[in-house]
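User: Teach me something about this protein's shape.
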Amino acid sequence: MPEKLRSINTKFWNDPYIEELNPSEKLLFLYCLTSPYSNLLGIYEVSQKKISFETGLNQETIRKGFERFGKDSKVFYKGNFIIIPNFLNHQRLNSNMKIGITKIFNDLPEWLRNDVLGNGSEGLGNDSEGFEKIRNGLLKYEIEIGSMKEEEGSKKKEKGKPKFTPPSLDEVKQYFKEWGYKESVAERAYYGYKENNWKDTKGNVVKNWKQKMQNVWFKDEHKIENKAGKDPRNNVITFDK
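Assistant: First, the predicted structure itself:
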């Protein structure tokens, strides 16, 4: 296991919460922060048997300690995972470390990711202030990483990806007509995207205009009246708008 450096502020021992803990609980809490299995996210896997071996605490003491920490929303322990809600708030991260955090999170089991994001059970207290801090932290890092990648992408041209060429009005009209949809709707769609530089309502660049028309504009109310034939969407694989 690679050696890691974990810095603990001396204020740790003067923290009102830590002062109220008994000696065994203080040791367990300190272990959670400095464990050799810990990571930048503050969510990592380690068994209670391993914790017992490395701290000298018996498993019953460890179990009771985690019960108290969880009740106070300080540290959660579930499925052999230690989760420290406030861990990210005490980290100073560079760009590479932020990328590492998102990778660590994405590598977690699905059930744990759902609990942290508040989409799973309430067993981890995911409505607590602590888990809100994790969610906000992850969102912040994803936004910053996205901006960084976008900046890098502007400096380097992506290879192997064809450049999007906007269709003409006639092409859009013909496409709608072939599938049994109104010309007036085709015009609305065309000018709407054209005026927005071929970006959708969410600001995403349209990469496949035909797929976008199918997903957004091919609706029953836009069909040509008395047009025979099957609904074209039955033969199309659609994705989110």
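Now, about its shape. Residues 129-155 form the longest helix (27 residues). The chain is about 50% helix and 5% strand. If you'd like, I can walk through any region in more detail.
User: That's plenty for now, thanks!
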